[in-house]
Amino acid sequence: MRTTPRPVRTLAALAVGVLLTTSACGGDDAATDPVAADRSESPAATSSPSDPAVTDVPTQEPAQAGAVPVYYVGESGSGPRLFREFRKVSGEPALGAAEMAASGEPADPDYRSAFPGGGGFSSVEHGDGLITVTLSDEAWVERAAGMSGADAELAVQSLVYTVQGALQSRDPVTVTSPGGSTTLFGVETADGVANADQLDVLNLVNITSPEQGAEVPGTFTASGVASSFEATVPWEVRDSSDAVVARGFATAEGWMDALYPWQTEVDVSDLAPGTYTFIAMTDDPSGGEGNPPMFDTKEITVG
Q1: What backbone torsions phi and psi does residue 71 show, to the nearest 5 degrees?
Q2: Alpha helices (H) in 143-241, listed in sequence order
């Protein structure tokens, strides 16, 4: 569930007394993904990723064992961007993740697949520094009707980030069809398509836990990845009338050059049982004068 958060003006405006914890290994979403395994080693909060080739592979564990990262499209306030969900798939993980990205139903209703209907994948192979995804037919070789060039590029990046995450590799991706084409929605992939810079295609804050629709206890751990001013990730809990009933902030392991893991404890023990929205957002040092904060939301139930 997505609501539009009020601009975050200063950290002083946020309530204090929040218990902040950051895991040295990024306790939230990375054992299985380039933004879920965004770093094989956790950098300090002031450090930058040590290897640009695997920068977007985060250091946090998926919310579910055996889950793989899947990248969907959502609205960011600055145009469409990619958001990540961890999903369980059957069969070969990379192929299952690709199929989930293309035709699966996101758990979060704010997300959508970047792919039109009508196509599919038959295999994903990895070797010799290249990830090869084979289409099941020719449906996605050319750009679909109504799909812009930007939409096509974002769909390609959705596939690239998803299969790289499932394979825990930043090797480039090529797409082939049974007819021998190497284009995906008209985008040439013969030489291998690298993952685009995270700051250009990913939403700058993403919640891994709690998941959409989760029932949470009185105190729960929230986590995700973000690139936010001075590594500050403000959060809010809102009730059904959109009133803020709790707020605080987390500190990510880094910022500026990539999305870094963040984690914090959220106390909702004083709230009445019911449905609420947990929102994580990027900090706005301009006090509302610059671009609006990016945010991600999850509907939660307080028991």
Answers
A1: -105, 120
A2: 149-167, 198-201
